[in-house]
Amino acid sequence: MSLVLDPAAQDLLFREARTANTFTDEPVTDEQVRAIYDLVKYGPTSMNQSPLRVTLVRSPEARERLVRHMAEGNQPKTAAAPLAAILSADNEFHEELPHLFPHFPQAKDAVFAERPVREGSAALNAALQAAYFIIGVRAAGLAAGPMTGFDFEGVRKEFLDDDHTPLMVVNIGRPGPDAWFPRSPRLDYEQVVTTV
User: Fold this and answer.
1) Range 81-116 burial, b when 16+ CB lie within 10 A, else e
2) Cα-atom radius of gyration of the chain, to the nearest Å?
3) Which among 118, 112, 68 is positioned nearest to 89, based on CA atoms?
4) Three-state DSSP state, 179
5) CA 101 to centroid of chain Cα atoms
6) Tens digits of per-residue pLDDT, 141-186?
7) Residue closest to 91 by CA, chosen among 62, 138, 63, 126
8) Which residue in 89, 131, 161, 195 has the fewest CB atoms around it within 10 Å?
9) Model-level pTM?
10) C-alpha to C-alpha distance for 69 and 12, rounded to whole angstroms
């Protein structure tokens, strides 16, 4: 069986897409980011938790503060990208569950009363949403440069609060010159899929 999605879209989202390391100076608008979110918000999460939070780093002052927390090799990329987004997990996501999961409004207290339970669930589900976000950036015709090479605690203290756990920083924009490293190998189907 073949895929239903148009091959050009498959290439845009997966086969030809890679982590961008350079960007042009063309701005990424709020309208583009809103369109990305309005698409990817429909990606599934457990109990519709939707714990991902996105902090857009736009001002030069905020960008300078972020760059200080990036690993040395990631600093120039983050300094030059048109937009940087801090993706984090909201560990208090359960407060929204009566609205997001209305057929089981007591889930907020029955399932997620304990902070460690919330943190584990928020981390998993926000990571799913972060992947959707990266695909959404690609769907918008932009390139994403997701990175985990940074001081997590420094970024949390600088931009977030104790209820949010940073997951990654994503540089966003149109790819610049020599934006791509060579494609790294992938595992074959037989190496990944087991039938029982």
Assistant:
1) bbbbbbbbbbbebbeebeebbeeeeebbeebbeeee
2) 18
3) 118
4) coil
5) 22
6) 999 999 999 999 999 999 999 999 999 999 999 999 999 989 999 9
7) 126
8) 195
9) 0.95
10) 31
Please state the φ and ψ torsions of residue 6, each to the nearest 5 degrees.
-50, 135
pLDDT tens digits along 12-67: 999 999 999 999 999 999 999 999 999 999 999 999 999 999 999 999 999 999 99
Single out the residue of 147, 129, 148, 53 nearest to residue 93, CA to CA.
53
Q: What is the residue whose two structure tokens read 């030809």? A: 16
Nearest in space to 180 (alpha carbons), one of 134, 145, 138: 145
> Can you tell me the distance from the alpha carbon of 42 to that of 156, in angstroms, rounded to the nearest whole number?
27
Residue with tokens 């209305």: 102
Residues 6+ apart with CB under 8 A from 29: none
3-state secondary structure of 172: strand
Helix (H) or strand (E) holding 27: none
Q: Give CA 57 to chain center in angstroms.
A: 14
For the chain, helix, strand, coil in percent to 5 are 45, 15, 35
Measured in whole angstroms, the distance separating CA 123 from the mean position of its chain's CA atoms is 12
The values of phi and psi at residue 115, to 5°, are: -60, -45
Strand, coil or helix: 84: strand
